[in-house]
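Lecture 7 notes: from sequence to structure.
We start with the chain below.
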Amino acid sequence: MKKLFVLLVVLIFSQAASAQLFSKEKIKNNENFDKDLLSWGFYLGLNNYDYQFNYETDMKDILVQTNVGFSVGLISNLRITDYFDLRFEPGLFITQRNLIYDPSYFDGMEFTDSDLMREVKSTYVHFPLLLKVSTKRINNFKPFIIGGLSVALNLSSNEENPDDNSVGQFRTKKNVMFYELGFGIDFYNKWFKFSPSIRGVFAMNDELVRDVDPNSPWTSNVTTMKTRGIFLNFTFQ
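Predicted structure tokens for the same chain:
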């Protein structure tokens, strides 16, 4: 999935470069589009979430099977200068990860095949505050980088659930803090601005809720479990 994201970005950027960067000056669409103090929009996108584990002792890694998820959200943009914008992009991000445990985690214990896998479904309500830094507009497109901090509320966390992995319930924390960094291109047409972008997100806090049993094979060897992910967003303003 990550390779697909990169391929899509390369194709978008290469077509933009060949069509505009090396061509003569063109008539600018929506020439005053970025002059407003406030502007609004929405985005649709794909996401691919992973987990990064740190361990107490040297054992085989917990494998993470990732899935492509769906994202949708709103945009409010505050113009600071011609090259700097402050953006608030609340959105809903839906995804699923499957954790695969090696049988060595259950050494000396009875286990079944279902014990070796845990489904982790996540529904994040995402609240990022981002700084967008743009280049000078070239004809009808403008590259940018974007980064900042965000907090997310995981509606599927089960943090308060008293049941744990002993009865098949894998639990994660409800509140997650991230830092984000990405890049994209603004394309201007006659009616709106279209902006494909790719962004990496990285959790700053441990998300794992430990089992009641301190020797639990699912959680006892995990020091930290942090989300990391890739977003491919298509923005319309």
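Points to note: The radius of gyration is 21 Å. The chain is about 10% helix and 50% strand.
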